[in-house]
Amino acid sequence: MTKTLTKGPYKADHVGSFLRPERIKEARVLKQNGKITSQQLREIEDEEIIRLVEKQKEVGLTAVTDGEFRRAWWHFDFLSELVGVELYETEAGIQFNGVQTKAHGVKVVGKLDFHDHPMIEDYVFLHRAAGDHVAKFTIPSPNMLFFRGRIEETAYSNQDDFFDDVIKVYQKAIQAFYDAGCRYLQLDDTAWAVFFSDQGKEQIAAKGYSPEELLERFTSAINESIAHKPEDMVITMHICRGNFKSSYTASGGYDNASEFIFGKLKVDGLFLEFDDERSGGFEPIQHVNRDDLQIVLGLITSKFGDLEHPETIKERIREASKYVPLDQICLSPQCGFSSTEEGNLLTEEQQWAKIKHVVSIADEVWK
């Protein structure tokens, strides 16, 4: 058995989303066409989530998720249910490397707040289904509302006021999830990728910041949002370069943001993409300056079905351990399998082979 940690992230862990079963995809279409009710859709989701949770237990994971089965997007579904935020149709989808998402976005139209959010109920269902396993829940980070949202002038004319309210919203959200039983919460964040490439520099300038100013802003937003989290609650962050139909939006190593990501963020763990050359080397993690920060290496790709050679993965873990002690390192896929409802280009069988691969390699590395 894999050496276990008393709290997440675990030596064999995962980012969160799983391929949507055809039954859920079909049910969502029926719901959109008025053929079934919201309650009927939810009952189908319930059944498929229970099946998913049991499968995660079967393959050896300690923490289980609901696969984000109730969501169309990894971020918009959560953000659009915040008070003061709306989902809307955009002129075009988000451009990935050769593919484009649906034309959806979120906009801030009023003062932000967190109240009666439907994902609290989603967590409660997962918590019950998890039983004696750890129920892990994922939400977008506070930076995503700024990075992916359109902030109406009538709502916030001042970015300081906007961030102050975003932080208050997340403090409320974290407490609400905790009160519902959540002890393992993950913040998903693609905004950090703007610091990794030359293209990102243009996006930073378009937001009216210098790289240093935005690094400070992002770090502060995360740290202040989690500042009052209960002692027995784990909050991790997944830093992503985009994940849609096995494609991506950004490339580049962590170097330009490494001192902030690894030395200043106060999360309990970092899920990091390291599945190919787009992510750069392990040198940036030398900025880790805490012995209680877990570094989760996303060395197993979730984008394609071919299995990585176990010895190659073990060698990469050994390489990373030159910069961070082995007992602070964990293993996972580099991202979820279905950040949007469309999913990546692999089969469910290949998906589970990937998860089993993570568990098997972790068993051997941390005996």
Mean pLDDT: 90
Shape: globular
Low-confidence stretches: 243-248
Please state roughly what percent of the residues sit in beta strands, choosing from under 5%, 5-15%, 15-25%, 25-35%, 35-45% or over 45%: 15-25%
Describe the structure.
It is a single chain. With 367 residues, this protein is an alpha/beta fold. The protein has one domain: TIM Barrel (Alpha-Beta Barrel), CATH 3.20.20.210. The protein contains 11 helices and 10 strands. It has helices spanning 22-32, 38-58, 76-79, 118-130, 143-148, 159-179, 198-206, 211-225, 258-263, 310-320, 348-365, and strands at residues 63-64, 83-89, 104-113, 134-140, 149-151, 184-189, 234-239, 269-273, 294-300, 329-333. The strands form 2 sheets. A 7-stranded parallel β-sheet has the order 1-4-6-7-8-9-10. Strand 7 (234-239), helix 9 and strand 8 (269-273) form a beta-alpha-beta unit. Helix 1 (22-32) runs antiparallel to helix 2, helix 2 runs parallel beside helix 4 (118-130) and helix 6 (159-179) runs parallel beside helix 8. The N and C termini lie close together (7 Å).
Brief synopsis:
The chain is of the alpha/beta class. The protein contains eleven helices and ten strands. Strand 7, helix 9 (258-263) and strand 8 form a beta-alpha-beta unit.
